[in-house]
Write a structure and sequence with these properties.
The chain is mainly α. The chain is built from six helices and no strands.
Length: about 120
């Protein structure tokens, strides 16, 4: 596996885009941004000027759509590592975390179907 230390955020975005099987143009269309801007970011130009919410939007654009029941409050729980939460004590809690894990599995599967990196 390639050493990820020292990679800039643009390289990581390019990796996610490739794993998702998207072209720069397709990612730009999904994110609603200029393809040239993404190409520059992937080349390492201007990555320090990108705001956090812009990076989040770009990464989300490489992922499959969220289910209809999803709201932005779930995004934080998705960012926790699998099993990175206290074991739920109720049936509804277990069902909630099962749904989060199903979305996480869908994202992982989505990336694995993309173009070879």
């Amino acid at each position: 596996m390639k050493d990820r230390r020292g990679r800039h955020a643009g390289e990581q975005l390019a990796d996610l885009r490739t794993k998702a099987g998207l072209t720069v143009g397709e990612l730009a269309a999904r994110a609603g941004v200029d393809p040239e801007w993404i190409a520059q970011l992937e080349a390492g130009v201007g990555t320090g000027d990108v705001l956090y919410h812009q990076w989040v939007a770009l990464v989300r654009a490489t992922q499959p759509p969220r289910p209809s029941w999803w709201d932005e409050g779930h995004e934080h729980d998705l960012s926790l590592p699998p099993g990175g939460h206290r074991a739920p004590q109720t049936e509804s809690g277990r069902a909630y975390w099962a749904r989060i894990e199903a979305v996480r599995a869908g994202i992982t599967e989505h990336y694995s179907r993309g173009r070879a990196s």
